[in-house]
Write a structure and sequence with these properties.
The chain folds into two domains: 30-183 and 292-319, Rossmann fold, CATH 3.40.50; 187-239, no CATH class. The chain is 31% helix and 19% strand. The protein has nine helices and 13 strands. The longest helix is centred in the C-terminal third of the chain and has 20 residues, at 247-266. The chain is globular and about 55 Å long.
């Protein structure tokens, strides 16, 4: 019986008049995208709305793929149960191949924050999370949560040099790529910049914009009042790290800067320590621009991102 995974192709004739035929094995497995949406006490509805909007965009980009939202988990054991269920499904007989996992929920530089009252998910070996069968080239775990790649926020010289953080540990443990934010994640409502022109529109999402226009608008977050009104009116929204020096986010970044520089100077004896995250945010904050993420590949940080006003990194544009 012929192997229906084999595509036969013909190369150009060789000198003696024969042709060279090569069998190329290709996979018929369906790309699988999993979007975990935290359902705990704080922010559940907003996380789910962002996950649904990401699902819509992925469906347009990959119409033949399977794109699922996993919700309903609040505690670590509930998340682990969903993770193990996914692992068991993706056995050798599975019709799916895992491309991307996205996480919409709370987190920091060290862990995912669930509702386990002080017990958090650090992605270490003791957590007993099996290694998923990631696609060798397309596999990636995308953290939409706060500061997953901010290794500076341990306020430790060792962590600065080793670059250990949540995204690095996930990448190393799962032996795949992992993307993390370096600042606090915020919701960006779309199309927020048109809000005041559309107060008489029944639904903000009825305004006709191309998908390219929506994608372009996600690169900048509107000012808080405009953004919050748009969210209240039911606008689509993304969840990503933005360069903000205003409001609660700005205060937290300034506090981190002070803690980092004090700790590095007094404990680590670093002369003139510099919290680079703050200065990168300063560069981009005049337009509330996307704050470039970081990506680790099997535990190793990929090429550093570009921090320049009105210029963007492919990883942010591809995975936001």
């Amino acid at each position: 019986m012929p192997d229906n995974r084999i595509l036969r192709g013909v190369t150009k004739p060789i000198q003696n008049g024969n042709v060279s035929v090569k069998d190329v094995v290709f996979s018929k497995k369906k790309p699988l995208f999993i979007l975990f949406s935290f359902s705990g006490e704080h922010g559940a509805s907003d996380f789910l709305a962002s996950a649904k909007y990401k699902q819509e965009r992925l469906k347009r980009k990959y119409p033949l793929a399977e794109i699922r939202i996993v919700e309903g988990f609040k505690l670590i054991d509930e998340f682990k149960k969903e993770w193990v269920k996914l692992y068991n499904e993706l056995d050798a007989e599975s019709i799916y191949q895992l491309w991307e996992v996205h996480y919409f929920g709370h987190g920091n530089q060290d862990c995912l924050l669930l509702d386990d009252k002080g017990v958090n998910l650090h992605f270490v070996k003791n957590d007993e999370l099996p290694i998923l069968p990631w696609h060798p080239n397309r596999g990636i775990f995308v953290l939409h949560s706060c500061r997953g790649a901010a290794y500076e926020d341990y306020f430790s010289k060792d962590n600065m040099e080793s670059k250990i953080c949540l995204a690095q540990r996930i990448s190393n443990l799962q032996q795949t790529r992992c993307l993390g934010q370096v600042v606090y994640a915020n919701f960006c409502a779309l199309p927020s910049k048109y809000i005041f022109a559309m107060m008489n529109t029944p639904s903000i999402n009825q305004v006709i914009l191309t998908e390219e226009e929506k994608e372009a608008e996600m690169r900048y977050r509107s000012e808080p009042i405009t953004n919050n009104v748009a969210i209240f009116m039911g606008a689509d929204k993304s969840l990503w790290g933005y360069a903000l020096l205003t409001g609660a986010t700005g205060k937290k970044i300034l506090k981190n800067k002070q803690q980092y520089e004090n700790a590095m100077a007094s404990l680590e004896k670093v002369i003139y320590p510099k919290y680079q995250i703050y200065y990168d945010v300063e560069i981009l904050s005049s337009r509330n621009q996307i704050m470039p993420c970081r990506v680790f590949n099997k535990g190793v940080l990929e090429q550093e991102h570009i921090v320049e006003l009105d210029k963007f990194n492919n990883n942010d544009l591809d995975f936001i």
